[in-house]
Amino acid sequence: QVQLQESGPGLVKPSQTLSLTCTVSGGSINSDDYYWNWIRQSPGKGLEWIGYIFYTGSSYDNSSLKSRVTISVDTSKNQFSLKVNSVTAADTAVYYCARSGIAGTTTPAFDIWGPGTVVTVSS
Amino acid sequence: DIQMTQSPSSLSASIGDRVTITCQASQDINTYLNWYQQKSGKAPKLLVYGASNLKTGVPSRFSGSGAGTHFTLTINSLQPEDIATYYCQQYDTLPPTFGQGTRLEIK
Fold first, then answer.
1. What's the DSSP call for residue A102?
2. Torsional sign, CA A8, A101, B56, B28
3. Which in A20, A61, A114, B86 has the greatest CB count within 10 A?
C-alpha cells in the first residue's frame, strides 16, 4: 500500500530556509485522484495545513505563512518537497506529508500520512 | 479562514462508556468534515470522512454525525486502545482547518 516518508534536516538556523522531502512508495505520485500535502503541528498552533501540490506542478499554499512557502514535485523520483524561507522559532514543529483525495473522485480527507519529522529552528 | 472549535478540550471516561466529542464550525460547511485520531508520538489517522462515513477498517464503535455547523464524534463502548487526541477538520473552503483537539483519557 502507499506509504509516505519525510526526510530533511532536523535543525535549521533562524532566517535560513527549511527544506524537506516526502518520498512516496507503493504507488505513483502521478495520479489524477490525489493532492500531496504538507501539514505541521506545534504545541502553540496545533495542526496547520501548509499547502498541497498536484502531480502536474499546480500548487496552493496557506496564506498564513505569508508567501514564504514553495512546494514542488519530482515525478521521476516520486517525491514532493517543501521549502519555507526566513524561518523563525515559530516554525519549529513536527512536519508531516500527507495524501488527500479530490472531492468527487476519492476520499476527500488526509487519508495517508508520513510518520512526521521534527524540525527545530534555533541558532 | 473557517474556525473549528472542539469541546471538551479534554475528557476522562471509563472503559465501556459512551463518549461524545463535538465540533463547531464558524460557518456552514455542509458535511465537509473529517475526524482524526492521534496517538502519542504518531501521525493522525483518518477515522471518519464526510461527517458520517467510517473509513474502511475503523471499528464500528466509532460514528460521526452532523451537518452545517455542528458535528459529533461518538465512541460507543470505549476501549483502552481509544486513548488518543481527536481532531475535526473542515474541507469546505481552503485552507483546510483543524479543531484544537480533544484529549481522551481513561478514568
1. P
2. positive
3. B86
Chain A nearest-CA distance from B40, in A, is 12
Q: Out of B32, B94, B99, name the one closest to residue A60 (CB).
A: B94
Cα–Cα distance, B21 to B9 (Å, whole number): 9
Contact B50 A108 (CB under 8 A): yes
Instruction: Give the chain B residue whose CA is nearest to the CA of A108.
Output: B49
pLDDT of B38 over the 90 cut: yes
Least Cα separation, residue B84 to chain A (angstroms)? 15
List, for residues B55-97, the tens digit of each pLDDT value: 999 999 999 999 999 999 999 999 999 999 999 999 999 999 9
For residues A38 and A45, the answer to whether their CB atoms sit within 8 Å is: no
Give the whole-angstrom CA distance, residue A8 versus residue A18. Answer: 8
Residue type, A57: G
**Is the CB of residue B90 less than 8 Å from the CB of residue B96?**
yes
Closest CA of chain B from A71, distance in Å: 15
Residue whose C-alpha is closest to residue B86's, from B67, B107, B66, B63: B63
User: In angstroms, what CA-CA distances link A112 with A20, B66, B74?
Assistant: 18, 24, 22
Cβ <8 Å between B87 and A47: yes
